[in-house]
Every structure is written in C-alpha cells, then in structure tokens.
Amino acid sequence: MSNRSLEKLQEKARWVRRTVLEMAVNAKSGHVTSAFSQTELLVALYHGGILRVRPDEPDWPDRDRFILSKGQGGIGLYPVLADLGFFPREELELFTQRGSQLGVHCEWHVPGIETVSGSLGHGLPVATGMAEAARRDGKRHLVVLITGDAELYEGSNWEAAIVAGARRYDNLVLIVDRNGQGVLGHTDPRDDAYLDWSSDGPALEPLAAKFAACGWETNEIDGHDFGAIFGALDGIRERKGRGPLAVVARTVKGKGVPFLENERRWHYRVPEGEELEIARRALA
Hints:
The chain is an alpha/beta fold.
C-alpha cells in the first residue's frame, strides 16, 4: 500500500504516535520515546511503498525483509503492521497483556516480524546473514533494518559492517535512528570538553564516515522529513554492484510531544495524569 501524499503521510505519523501513546497507557508499559523517534521512517517504509510486502501473505518468499534491531521500539512498529492488515487492529489493545502476541520487544511469531530483536547489536549481523542468503539463493529482495545509535557501541555491529562492506551486499540497507540518546547518556559529547563518563558514552561521530571506511555507501538525512527519507531510499533497488547503504537519519527522541523530546528519563516512563492530557493535545 503506497500513498505519497505528504499530508496523508504526516497524518498517518500522528495516528501512529497517538496509538502508541494509548497502547502504553493501557499497558502501563512501553518505550514511547523510542517509538516516536522512528515514526516517520516506518511510515515511509511501509505506507510510502518502499518495502515490498504482502500483509495477507506475510511469508511471501519474495518479500523484502525488515528488521527493527531496536526491538524496544516494537510498540511503534505494531500499529503500522496492524494498519496495513498483518493482524487485526484490535490486537493493539492487548499489548503486553496475558495471551497477547504483542510483547515489549519484537518476536518472530507476530505476522510481519522477521526475527526476535531487542538484544541490542544483533540486528545488523542477522541482516547481513539474510543478505548473504539472498545472494546464494539468487534472490533480489531487499534486507532493510533500523538500528538505534546507542546500540552501535556493540562490537558485533562493526564485525557485520566490515563483512557486508567487503562482500558488497547491494541488497542491504541500514537506517540509523540517530536520536543521540542512550539509556546511560548521550551518544556524543555535548561540547568540546572531556566526556563525563558518568552520563555520556564515547563519541559515535563521525558515524557516516565510519560506515564509509567499512565499504558502505552513506547518506545523512533528517529522519522526520518524508521528502528526505524518500530521496535517500527511492533508488535502493537500482544499486547493483554498489555495496551496502547506510542512512544516518537524525531524529529527536520523543518527537511530537515537547516535554518528552530529548528527555532520557522518559525512556521507561509512561505519561499519566495532567502530563498524559498534555501529550494527547500535542498529538491531536
């Protein structure tokens, strides 16, 4: 399903954020701010028609494979899948409840989900294996994944990046949700002073250059701008022989609700009371 109307895509993104908020409130659980930073990326991939999938045939052999490596953002992927018809929308109301197939982290038994994710640093190695399998089987489907930036501290990602670059997997596309936040701190220093190791991690920048050094084609975009997203991804099926592509998408954690934006303390929290009403009004 593809509709490139900017107005409709923006409204779909607002609907996804509203749905995520209500799912989290109902469950009293869920990583709302992680879901909000990736929303436009997911809406572009699925509703913008970048990914080739069949909701009524989730295991279609020629489908593109998508992995949400930052599996804690599953609450933001489920509404997209349900809206397209991979499973009933009513299932969203049961998020994390007993008997529901929708857990906090993505699991492979959910229609439209390819693999368990959330153990950070596993997504890119798995996607690299899928790209190799597709090559050996003579298939031309894409393997696309979204990682968080903080999970790029995991060495397994860079082992996979080196292999993918050396093997020139032109069917592999990585999108980094570059919101600059991790549970333990910012993913880069906020000024030129020495890092405060109690609150920040070592610098990831220059991130795109690091992927380029591993043999990847790279691009840096605004991850909330649909035009920029389509500009970076519309040609991904015509990249034969060019190697893997890494798109560093600069985003805002908690995007859409001002008091949630760039506030690490909301990673595990769900708004309630007056804060909940403020969030609902912001997303109306």
